[in-house]
Write a structure and sequence with these properties.
The protein has 219 residues and is mainly alpha-helical. 65% of the residues lie in helices and 2% in strands. Strands 1-2 form a two-stranded antiparallel sheet. Helix 5 packs antiparallel against helix 6.
Amino acid sequence: MVKKACILNILLFLLVLFSIIWMMSGITKSALSISGFSSLRYFTVDSDILLGILSLAAAVDEWRVWKGGKTEVSTRTLVLKLVATVGVSLTMLVTVFFLAPTTFRQYGWFGMFKGSNFFLHLVNPILAIAVFLRYEGSGRLPFAHTFTAFVPMLLYAVYYLAETLSHVENGVIAKGYDWYGFFFNGVSSAWIMVPLLIAVTYAISFALWRLSVRFRSEP
């Protein structure tokens, strides 16, 4: 099982690298995509980069177990993979249930899944979930770490709020600064969206933690 996990994590790393380069190259123009390092303003890009880095780190750890250098994958690796998987899962769910429905008139129902976003918004998250549930979740992952998965989202929330609320004009976010459209009802929308995103993030984290034990097959 550790062999398959290692191979799939390498695949995840390569897919993330491919999709990030595609996005930053600007070869294909699609919704919520910007060429160059400006694309780092999107949580999608940030969470996928984190997934790629931590997938590679997990592959190294799993390789050592595979080759007999150690007896088991470290708990730290499992925690970090949970954090990364929660991040891209949040991206996918927000895209499917919020961004796609609210922007379909502008981009079409599948506008959020064109070009590099097909991988960033869908393929990478689904593969990350599958790898974690099947091969990486275990009873060794402490329940307390379901809260650790909040960290990337909270850090991004601070950045997003700072960026948007510093560009308020007559109670409305200036055009181009609320790129996700979360402030659909003006600044007051923060009182709805922030608690909702926190709740959704924790629900994802808890579900992955809980389900991973059931889906994980024995060696």
